[in-house]
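anyone seen this seq b4? input:
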Amino acid sequence: MKQVRILSTIMFSDRDKPCPYVITLIMSAILIIVSYHIAFAALPDFNTPGTITVSELVVGRDGNPAGTGWNSAPCWVDFGPFTSGTITIERDGLKDLFIGDKDGNVWFYENIGTEREPAFGNGFILQTEDDTTVNVGHNATPFLIDWDRDCDLDMIVGNSRGTFYYYENEDGKFQSRGELSRGPVLVAQTSTVGSAQDIFVVGKYAYVAAGEMGLQIFDISNPYKPSLVGGFDSAGSAQGVFVRGNYAYLADGKEGLRVVNITDPKSPKETGGLAPRNPQGAKKPQGDEGVQPGATDVYVVGNYAFVACGIGGLQIVDVTDPTKPNAGKENRHGFDVPVGGIANGVYVVSNHVYVAAGNAGLQVLEVQDFFPTVGTTSSIGTTGSEGIVQLGVVDTPGCAMDVWIKPDISEQYVYVADEKGGLQIIDVGDGQTVSNTDMTAAAIVSSIAFEDAQNVFVKRQQGTDTTIAYVSDGANGFQMVNVTDPTAPERIDGASYNTKDYTSAVWVQDGFIFVADRMAGMAIFDDYNPPNSQAQNLVNVNAFYSSPHIFDLDEDGFCDMLSGDEHGYVWFFHNTGALSNPTFNDGFMIRGSSSSGMLDVGQYSTPWVVDWNGDGVKDLIVGNETGNVLFYEGYEITPLSTDSIKGLIPLATSNRYLAFKSPKNIKVSGRDIDVGRKSCPMIGDWNMDGGLDLIVGDENGNITVLLNTKTWPGEEPEFNASFKIRGSQPKNLWIGEYSVPFVVDWDNDHKKDIIIGDVYGYVTYFRNSGTNTKTPEFSSGFRPQRTGPQGMMDVQVDGNAVPVAFDWDMDGKKDLIVGDFHGKVWLFKNIGTDAAPVFGTPTQMLSNNAPLDVGQYAAPFVCDWNHDGQKDLIVGKESGVCLLFINTGSANGTPTLGTPTILSNTSGDIDVGRFARPWVVDYNGDWLDDLIIGNGDGNIKVYLNMGNEQKPEYAVGINIQCEEIDIDVGQYAAPAIVDWNNDGTLDLLAGHKEGFVQLFTSSSDTETVWIDESITLKTGVNDWPAFRYNAARDGNDPSEALMPPLDMYWTYNTGYPVVSSPVVYGGTIGVCSKNGSVHNIDMYGNGSL
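predicted toks r here
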């Protein structure tokens, strides 16, 4: 046998050699041992009792008793800073709650808890900037999102009418923007083969300048089914088109102006043309020499065509005879744009010409003589050819690409598509009398930002005084702006469409919008969106009860919207707008597997999008009227040409669609989630552990949280219990009658939870949602579930449940041992996981292979009575005595209980009168387990162990006191002794007949003996627990116990009984003896064991 060397009995220190034993200990466990075994050197002195409380958030009630709650719909985000009325909330990194109620209000609840354990203060109803209450009528369902991409969270709110209200967040204050209007609805898309650059609509034909494919003509008599009827392949690249009479005038790039006879649209023919103008005095470039002029736009008035020729400036062409443009006239007649400019677009009113001149801004010209006599004096440059006078110029901030004027309204305002400068609105004078004087004061009066404004079309809405500017925004599609007051234009929310390719030009006629969409061809839209929308133009679910969820479901980079409705369907609204101005079409119901063919949850559907099972495909989580929450697994399909795609969600990748499988009810502890009625689910990481948790509102104004025990990516969530969100209005925890508490870390989060039995035989779990360093805090309770003949059901025995949570069968999972009114003890084996218990059908425990039956009122407690490493069972009974069942089986399997004996002391059988409820703990800090028993009179007695660990001998019982008065909880005292508030002293919880749980905390001046502060504890990286197996204490893991037979290596004599488990740390062993010494032993001796 090896010799060992004593290092010290005071200091713990690191050693470099690794420990070869399995039984090693992390230093946190060392600290636990030391404080647990040495801190209690006297009987606890209890303070005046309080009652364990719970606190639940109820919508519309906390802080406002007059509130009504009902139909709570939660949205959970970190919000701030913002102001509502007189209240200012700062952003603090904690997620707050926005909750809708049945009255149409939206409430805000600030998180006053922690990141991992949220709790919420008194709520208040949100107000807008003008102190108007946020209210959408009835059944508000809010969703927070940065709607306009300005880095502030805005709010979309569903309601009982089936529409959606938009509240914009401007500088921390909500602005009401009314109900969302439907955007323009795409009704047709047709290819133009070439690149659609410009469009002109007359009568039943649309004329498209199709780039290298020249002119293409479409029959649009039925806008829903346009058809190509003819075309003309020009020699250049058609960039612009204007139609007058029987002729189409093409701005054909380097080929200049081409005139096409369209008398027969099926067979258009070129009748004449003219090369583009060069700047005055410039030599025409040859071949690839330099930048050549090219026709980009054309406008025809009377007998003249005005052609924007790029660097060639403005060209005026006489088309009196369309077959001979400029016959006998000067081809260079026109106007040179200033250096650095380029003529991109042109618009003519009478003899006033407006040129979008690129970096040279807006050029305003007056034609005094269209073609002066050749040879007369002319000045070149800013005044152009003789007869053309420059009235003025307005320098725009971007690059002027196009220009439009609405002369029937007023020539005073000019609208310029200014590329990155957006839409610029310029005041050039008073009415129809633009003059040099007017242009002196010309200025930009307003603007609307766009990323790539290429073209603008202005039109007054038929039958109204409303004027709309349709702006082609390149890769962002087109957007609509209310310019009824040109000095105060307003972007129309929802009035935009992000086309497939690149919107070059827009034309509006007869309620339809025609778009030149470059390589995507021509697109046609229903123009649904005047700004003063009527009900039929609102985004809605065509039913009552909208519940929005906004998510990019079709993977095109733009957020779409889903919504439930009163019938239980789920709607998909495709975002046809832009990132900064979402626009939704009419929407459709998503396909499901129900008899109707649609996804149908019954009534009152509330959807949420998430990848629930971690397979990379988006799924749907949907609440319904019955209070359940359903999981629809998403999958991607490529339909055959003969398959119907109705109800499928088209994905950005061509011919791929998102579909959903048949639903599964999401379960908690093996049972379908049921929150009552009208479940409103949302998904988030509630406790910041990496898992997808489920937060569900219901019609009673409650918010239920279900914590996911699966925290690894790709794992489908699993829920072990549910609890209500904690609020700020505590109330006494109450379960009915005859409460019997047991303290256990139920969900493995290292915090003390409570399970409580009641008179009806149920067991209720109350989760500790506080912190592990303070007094536990609770919200609502949850009944654990077990299997039954009809599926899952509550854990229940036949009256007066007395529960103990313990791993009875040594499989690493906590089981439930429950006594009942008839004196039986039942084992509910955990067939789930330790973090998410689900229990099997109960079996009656046996004693000597016969059913264990103590008569009436069985109150079990599990402990290692004789410290032989095996768990034994003590059972109190109605007569007031406690029976001891010694485990005669093995230490690593299901216990085998022998014949019971009555616990006794020096005075005979221990008898507390009636209804004995036992608990075993080292009550006085002498390292021996004592016996605590509650009785039917409401008293709690302690029987101190005067023997030893293997053979307890008990003194006469004494009543536990509080402030020198015997504790009396009324009737049926059920004690639980733990360090409840983590202050290092034992506290007492006591259930009783009234159904509450009283708390007696130890006085801070309780006499204690502490280890000297000079002791230092250090640890190596491979330290593990080495507790002896002790069923009465936490922190023991039977799965790590050593299995016999074992060899003896060496022994060490401490001189006094060993009163703690040995602790191995970096090559030394620490152990405590009964005289208070801490021995530090070098287990390697002189270098070897």
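Residues 547-726 form one domain. DSSP finds two helices and 89 strands in the chain. kinda curious what u guys think
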